Amino acid sequence: NAGVTQTPKFQVLKTGQxxxxxxAQDMNHEYMSWYRQDPGMGLRLIHYSVGAGITDQGExxxxxxxxxxxxxxxxxxxxxxxxxxxxxxxxxxxxxSYGYTFGSGTRLTVV
Amino acid sequence: SxxxxxxxxxxxxxxxxxxxxxxxxxxxxxNLQWYRQNSGRGLVHLILIRSNEREKHSGxxxxxxxxxxxxxxxxxxxxxxxxxASYFCATDPQGAGNKLTFGGGTRVLVKx
Lengths: 111, 112
What we know:
The structure holds 2 protein chains of 2 kinds. By secondary structure, chain A is an all-beta fold. Chain A has strands at about 5, 10-15, 20-25, 30-35, 45-50, 55, 65, 75-80, 85-95, 100, 105-110. In chain A, strand 9 and strand 10 (about 100) form a beta hairpin. Chain B is mostly beta strands. At the A-B interface, strand 4, strand 5, strand 9 and strand 10 of A face strand 4, strand 5, strand 9 and strand 10 of B.
């Protein structure tokens, strides 16, 4: 099935732990982004990439790293988890026609 | 800070009624997009309107854009229970390279 796949769907971390949220798309989209969504709020852009090897910061990049070694994959790394990073994380991709395709999200809790 | 702000924050209507929600934004844009999010799910792209367009239709959806007022509206006609969701506007600011900025959303409840 074509789309954006995020893993894991749920994760609990202890403060200070690190982890990588995985995102893969099979639509050959150039543009990929990571957003976080806090309860009752809209999405805030963390990092984005306009193609393999090119990444840039969004609105709330602190505490997160990304890399884009292939067109398909765009992992998000939490360097040292903090309770403030408890959120739902969405990966999205966009091809030449406008409109993002979103993954189903990763619900992260940091205790 | 969020570029788009939706109004109202929540809306409750009866099935068959129309639902209207508004979005205001701050800077010049290339386009404005509307998304739907069902509870616990990812966002689904509904419709895009470009800065040189004033109105666009897609099925039961009607979107308007007023760039002079920096505002947009989404109308859902003849609503159904399945339209219960949160609706977000997202702006593609000029010169920002497709960095979509989302508003806080409107929660719509359609009662059967």
